[in-house]
Amino acid sequence: MLIRYMQVALPVRLASEGARVGLVVLAVDRTGSAGFGGALVAALLVPSVVAAPVAGALADRVRRRRLFHVGCLVFYGTGLTAVAGLAGRAPTPVVLAVAGAAGCCTPLLTGGLTSLLSDLLPPSERGRAFSLDAVSYNLAGIAGPALASVLAAATSPASALVALGAGAAAGGLLVSALPLRPRPGRSPALRPADLGTAAVLLVRNPPLRSITWASGVGQFGTGALPVVCVLLAARYQTPWAAGGLMTAMALGSLTGSLAYVWRPWGAQRPEWTVIAMLFATGVPLAAVPWMGSATAAFGGFALAGCCTGPLFAALLAGRDRYAPPNARTQVFTLGASLKSTFAAGGAALAGAWQAAGPGSLVLAVAGCQAAAAVLGALLLNGQRNQADRPLS
Fold first, then answer.
1. Contact, 111 vs 60, CB < 8 A?
2. Is 315 helix (H, G, I), strand (E, B) or coil?
3. Residue-wise over 103-125: b if at least 16 C-beta within 10 A, else e?
4. What is the arithmetic mean of pLDDT over 47-73?
5. In the chain, where do the E strands start and end?
6. Is there a contact between 65 and 184 (Cβ–Cβ < 8 Å)?
7. Where does the pLDDT of residue 45 fall: very low under 50, low under 70, confident under 90, or very high at 90 and above?
8. What's the rounded Cα separation, in Å, for the pair 119 and 391?
9. Closest by Cα among 59, 13, 33, 369 to 224
């Protein structure tokens, strides 16, 4: 069953990660404007933050779940294909609207898919399943942009985006092979109050509150790393470090996720694994300002990445363990959107404060991880009385 799930998750997440590069390359090829490419990426990503509660709430209530997920994933892939045909040929607002419509389905490519593991696997198998799912995110983050670049160079930017869209649509069709039974009765009507169910849980439930906001603060720091890496490359006078340091962190994260698949320690208390790994992530990053070469910094980033792999796997397991079934997908989609929002804020702040220099910025990133760990521990207040067992 896990193999069937991965056959869905990998192609749609490769498409999601690759589209960010594919859209920019397409925009430059058709219009010569990287700014238009940035607008397309924003149009694809920003709606997901707003749509996450709605998409999650619908997924938690719709009776025919397979049909719902198939439709959303195929719609996303079709949207990418449409943008490939329209960019540079149709009015800009129309192209941005099509990208935005596809972006509304993005929460179901990430947290929405992950939430299905609870319905597909027994509790005894979920720990390793969430770890393997974290691996799919890591692989997509590494291979997706590379795949988009290779396809664009080998064929054309438009063909690359069409291929990514086709991959997402094909993954969506494979959802029909997953044994997701229809819910009994008719689908309950979605009320405005239902859209806040997950938000209430992320504030009132101690473990969910802890892992959500702690990981968000940590992501605020790591979201700044692309800017930091560019500055470090200039400091070391090593151009490859601009992308190489982020690659090191991604490879480390993949290694950590695979290690956690092999031995998922802390499975009974995933919230404490998140807290411990947040603190551990900051330790090697804090040493980077005193490293005298890009090679040494590469090792520091790789070690930090090794901690983010188990952190993410434990975060997914924690959402599953403590979210009630009637709001599970909404918890996953809203949690993923909050992380993306924090990351975007960190990147924007780093860009505004780049005059502080790479040493100060990477220390600030490390400090965010330590602050996140402390916040996570503080937000667990009341766990013994309220959340020693999963909610139902």
1. no
2. helix
3. bbbbbbbbbbbbbbbbebbeeee
4. 86
5. none
6. no
7. confident
8. 15
9. 369
